[in-house]
Amino acid sequence: MAREAVRRLPEGTLSLWKREQAVLKARVVDRDTEAWQRDPAFSGLLRVGGLDVSFVKGDSVSACASLVVLSYPKLEVLYEDCRMVSLTAPYVPGFLAFREGPFLVDAVQRLQEKEPHLSPQVLLVDGNGVLHPRGFGVACHLGVHTDLPSIGVAKKLLQVDGLENNALHKEKIRLLQAGGDTFPLTGGSGAVLGMALRSHDHSTKPLYVSVGHKMSLEAAVRLVRSCCRFRIPEPVRQEPESTETKDMPPGRLRRAHPQSRP
DNA sequence: GCGACAG
DNA sequence: ATCTTGTCGC
Fold it and tell me: Which CATH number fits domain A22-246: 3.30.43.10, 3.30.420.140, 3.30.2170.10, 3.30.70.100?
């Protein structure tokens, strides 16, 4: 297979990135700031955004940066922007935001400028929030840069602060009985960094939800749960996952998935 | 043995 | 992330 152009990072880049994470981390707000977040039915929440970068098969450079906005609570597609981009930074664990973040921030800002009435009130981000080696994952990054509430939704446990995907953890997963069941991810420091969430009755593998920005963990988990028809919450799942959608011109609208029950 | 490591 | 072989785990 063709070796990808994954150039080594210039010396000192990681130090700069760490410094930037530390600076931006000081701006994270890890509590509810919006009225709808405290409402049991999320009354007042009308639009939920989902952000993701999906790759072209066998290529670690060409990718599609996409933003989907769904109505709430019906989860119908209001807007979708999918733009082909060339990723420059390599993937370095703990620094995902520096690879994918800029394109996703762009997508949000384009929408806010051109169609502000469709702007999301909260962002679901594929990756972690404060559940991160330095407490500042890609979801925090997007939240701070857009000043929107954001939530990190990861599909795998990032082993940080003593958290381990070990036998005990797997046993806790096994004990999650029904959709909506959770257990806290408590780091060695005693802080609850996130929650493992069984997002659906028929889903064995949990989601790892953590605060990104301007939202409490409790509200974040509740919202993710309420956005799940299947394992992956709709705003993130709606992102193009097959090559067919990647070939679409930017800004084109896609049909919603068939709705189960209004 | 050579480990963990979101996407 | 994607592809892929394989079949336990500390």
Answer: 3.30.2170.10
